[in-house]
Design brief:
The protein contains three helices and no strands. It is mainly alpha-helical. The protein has a domain of 32 residues.
């Protein structure tokens, strides 16, 4: 959790808070892929890209 706190402080200092929603969605999707294993989700990801 210390890394998350430091990252938020970094974003505040650099005035890059607009990146926070984008990065949080990427992290959530990455966590979802790890949890449900890549083989089940692969067809859906393929259609997105």
């Amino acid at each position: 959790m210390e890394i998350l706190k430091e990252f938020i402080i970094f974003l505040k200092n650099r005035n890059k808070l607009f990146l926070l929603p984008l990065l949080s969605v990427i992290i959530i999707l990455g966590g979802l892929l790890v949890i449900v294993e890549g083989t089940v989700v692969a067809p859906f990801i393929y259609t997105l890209f």
